[in-house]
Every structure is written in structure tokens, then in C-alpha cells.
């Protein structure tokens, strides 16, 4: 990317085919090498994304009710929300009329 900036300032005629090609190639390479670290930082939660909503506390905690303990799988990892809903539905037993 630095070469593209130097090329933009030092070239007497910037809008030639050769200069535009070199600049485009440098910009694409810079983007290609920057995407992987940015995706890694985003997945680790270390990349601050402006204007994104953050869930600092669960919705139940704002109501004052005690939060349910997290549902964990056999390896101790938290279970995804859709699986939690299935387990909650399976845990309910229907009442039968006698």
C-alpha cells in the first residue's frame, strides 16, 4: 500500500494505464493480506466495531429475576440458544387429565 501512495505522489501523470494498474494491484494485495487478521480479531472479540449493539448483560437480569445457570454440554462449553430452547421444550411434561 505504501508503494501505491508513493506512486500517487511521485508520478508526473498519475492517470495512465500503468500507474492505475500498479496502484490497483498494490491495493488488492494490501486488502487480501489485511482481511485474515481482521477476521481473526473480530472472532476473538478484540476488534471494536462502531455502532454495533453490545449485549453486556442478559435480558432477565434487567428484570430483577435471578438468571438461570448456563446450560453446558459434556465438554463444559455453553450450549447455543436454539439447543437451549429445544431442551426447555423437551423438559416440559404435558399435563394429562385423569
Question: What's a concise summary of this model?
Answer:
It contains 4 helices and no strands. It has 98 residues and is mostly helical.
Q: How would you describe the overall organization of this protein?
A:
With 98 residues, the protein is mostly helical. The chain has one domain (2-48, 68-91). The chain has four helices and no strands. The chain has helices at 2-10, 17-44, 59-62, 81-91. Helix 1 packs antiparallel against helix 2 (17-44). The longest helix is centred in the N-terminal third of the chain and has 28 residues, at 17-44.
Topology:
Layout: H1 2-10, H2 17-44, H3 59-62, H4 81-91
Helix pairs in contact: 1-2
Largest sheet: none
Radius of gyration: 27 Å
Oligomer: single chain
Helix content: 40-55%
Summary keywords:
98 residues, mainly alpha
